[in-house]
């Protein structure tokens, strides 16, 4: 199978290559690597010998591929996808960007949750498969066992999203900001007699001053939190918040829409998105049963006991980064009423939130083609 990769050096693309190498997915594929910035340069080494990068804007070179997997971003998809289809390319397009997600012809891919729908779509001849929004995918990975009962009336999700969710440049800037805070407060930190308020004043001065690089985030992210992700849409929602309900419902294929809404917040974590969930049930379900339902959904989710040591050890971005597990913890009934439960879940948004569904889509496609 001839497979072209675009966006392979960005965050999602890098993790995709890492996972494909680990799972030996490159075996048996004829791979071509494309670039928007370095055509003619060296292609990445996937154990198939040296190769050159092709031009990611060359429609003929792209149309030579049976499958295109792009992690390049929405602007690229917007420019290239319609042009390719228009010139008659009928290959399979697999994409991490949000551009095509709500198109009627596009199938959102998260196979532990909607694997049957994906396989049916291939049988039906569909050829546009898109990874869903990272927080949406991670929420469904954690909660699908419970949602499948039909007993969830609505979900409110308050997110804590890592810098890597916005790509490689945002990650660099977060660490640069951390360094700047460290450099400017080092003389105070080195003196054990420094009062905490003095240290705090210095850090605040750095966070609000001109020395901090803020090109990517527009403000301090290190030592702070940014309660806004993406652009404004309707009713005061950001686009990131809007995606939660529309994409979750598209993946679940529910006939009666499940309301999902909340606030999306960027925090200074490097990798892994966390979410605090309020879940309204239609009827009382005992917590033991909730646990059994969540644990039983698939092999990548498990309930973390609602205890301090377990929560700070297993339910944090630092603990989950680089892992395919999507733990769900802090599970309990709320004081709001017997049908309200709360939960906290963390997942690596570069894995299940981005690269993993794409590599698994390629695997499903290969199975389908036999
Ligand atoms: P990214 O890291 O910014 O990479 C995108 C492209 O930026 C790369 O392919 C590369 O293109 C270019 N680039 C410029 N400077 C770079 C640098 N210093 N290091 C690496 N690449 C650089 O974006 P991403 O986070 O992978 O996201 C790609 C798409 O996936 C977006 O549509 C995003 O919305 C979506 N997505 C991301 C996540 C996530 O957690 N990050 C999750 C789900 C979906 P050239 O090599 O052609 O120059």
- How far is it from the N-terminal to the C-terminal residue, by CA? 11 Å
What is the tally of helical segments? Answer: 12
Order of helices and strands: EHEEHEHEEHEHEHHEHEEEHEHHEEH
What does the overall shape look like?
globular
Helix fraction? Answer: 25-40%
The biggest sheet amounts to:
8 strands, mixed
Estimate the mean pLDDT confidence: 97
Low-confidence blocks of residues: none
Specify Rg, calculated over alpha carbons.
Answer: 22 Å
Task: Name the bound molecules.
Answer: NADP nicotinamide-adenine-dinucleotide phosphate
- Could you say which structural class the secondary elements and strand pairing correspond to? alpha/beta
Care to describe what's here?
By secondary structure, the protein is of the alpha/beta class. It is 39% helix and 20% strand. The strands form two sheets. Strands 8, 9, 10, 11, 12, 13, 14 and 15 form an eight-stranded mixed sheet that branches. Helix 1 (11-22) packs across helix 12 (351-369), helix 4 (111-123) packs parallel to helix 12 (351-369) and helix 5 (134-147) crosses helix 9 (287-295). The relative contact order is 0.15. The mean pLDDT is 97. It binds NADP nicotinamide-adenine-dinucleotide phosphate (NAP). NADP nicotinamide-adenine-dinucleotide phosphate binds next to helix 1, helix 6 and helix 12.
């Amino acid at each position: 199978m001839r497979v072209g990769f675009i966006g392979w050096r960005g965050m999602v693309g890098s993790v995709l290559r890492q996972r494909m190498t680990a799972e030996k997915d490159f075996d048996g594929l004829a791979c071509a690597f494309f670039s928007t910035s370095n055509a003619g340069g060296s292609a990445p080494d996937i154990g198939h010998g040296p190769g050159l990068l092709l031009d990611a804007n060359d429609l003929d070179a792209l149309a030579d591929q049976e499958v295109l997997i792009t992690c390049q971003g929405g602007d690229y998809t917007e420019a290239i996808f319609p042009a390719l289809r228009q010139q008659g390319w009928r290959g399979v397009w697999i994409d991490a960007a949000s551009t095509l997600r709500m198109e009627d012809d596009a199938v959102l891919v998260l196979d532990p949750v909607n694997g049957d729908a994906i396989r049916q779509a291939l049988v039906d001849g569909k050829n546009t498969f898109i990874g869903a929004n990272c927080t949406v995918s991670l929420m469904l990975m954690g909660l699908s066992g419970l949602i499948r009962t039909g007993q969830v009336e609505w979900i409110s999700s308050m997110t804590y999203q890592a810098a890597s969710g916005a790509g490689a440049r945002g990650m660099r800037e977060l660490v640069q900001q951390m360094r700047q805070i460290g450099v400017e407060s080092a003389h105070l930190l080195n003196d054990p007699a420094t009062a905490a308020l003095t240290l705090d004043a210095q850090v605040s001065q750095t966070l609000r001053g001109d020395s901090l690089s803020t090109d990517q985030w527009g403000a301090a992210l290190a030592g702070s939190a940014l309660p806004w992700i993406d652009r404004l849409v309707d009713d005061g929602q950001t686009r990131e918040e809007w995606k939660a309900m529309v994409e979750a419902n598209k993946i679940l294929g529910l006939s009666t829409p499940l309301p999902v809404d909340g606030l999306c917040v960027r925090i200074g974590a490097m990798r892994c998105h966390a979410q605090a969930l309020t879940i309204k049930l239609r009827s009382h379900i005992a917590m033991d049963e909730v646990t059994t339902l969540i644990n039983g959904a698939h092999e990548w989710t498990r309930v973390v006991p609602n205890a301090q040591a377990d929560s700070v050890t297993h339910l944090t971005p630092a603990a989950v980064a680089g892992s395919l597990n999507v733990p769900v913890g802090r599970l309990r009934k709320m004081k709001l009423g017997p049908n309200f439960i709360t939960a906290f879940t963390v997942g690596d948004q570069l894995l299940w939130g981005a690269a993993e569904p794409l590599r698994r889509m390629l695997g499903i496609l290969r199975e389908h083609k036999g």
